[in-house]
Design goal:
180 residues, three-stranded mixed β-sheet, 30% strand
């Protein structure tokens, strides 16, 4: 370790390079703390979709959850997904259409999805969870790839379903009606 001397009020004192580097790190500490905080904050705003046979069965039995608001995407005659979000959350408008859900309407939507494939095992039910893992809604779709983002004031943004790199399939690129 090299040592150099610097002038101080009390005379010349030895300073090691290690002290010099420690001083630089101390000056950068607030910036590094801010970057770490922003990284954790951004990462914490995304939820997850977890496959659930129980959710699939709930949809297939046409059971409507009264404490959830329902949404669908795709043509009314051929929906690609149904979403139910707990009423304590708000779905950001724009991508999904609101559906006044009854058992009859749910039956029609589920049957329309089944008719597209000819059978139900390929339609996926899932739990929508917040960043902490708390259940906030359910998903029923021909596809299981989506992005779930949580914004302030209990607003959820759910992207449209996609088959690309499907996380529920083992080999990726799952197409509707193809089981692995």
């Amino acid at each position: 370790m090299t040592t150099r001397r610097i002038q101080s009020a009390s005379g010349m004192i030895p300073v090691s390079n290690q002290t010099k580097h420690s001083h630089r790190i101390r000056r950068l500490r607030p910036l590094l703390t801010l970057l770490a905080t922003l990284t954790v904050a951004c990462a914490g705003t995304y939820g997850s979709l977890q496959r659930s046979k129980d959710v699939s069965k709930t949809f297939e039995r046409h059971e409507v959850m009264a404490d959830h608001a329902y949404y669908a995407t795709g043509p009314e005659a051929r929906p690609t997904a149904i979403l139910a979000i707990h009423r304590s959350y708000t779905l950001k408008p724009g991508l999904w259409r609101s559906v006044e859900m009854t058992p009859e309407v749910l039956s029609r939507l589920v049957d329309a999805m089944t008719d597209q494939l000819g059978f139900t095992p390929a339609i996926l039910g899932g739990v929508i969870a917040d960043p902490a893992g708390k259940r906030v809604g359910v998903w029923y779709s021909l596809y299981s790839r989506t992005t779930i983002r949580f914004e302030p004031e209990n607003v959820i943004v759910v992207s449209l379903p996609s088959a690309d790199n499907d996380p529920f399939s083992r080999g990726g690129n799952r197409l509707p009606g193809r089981l692995r």
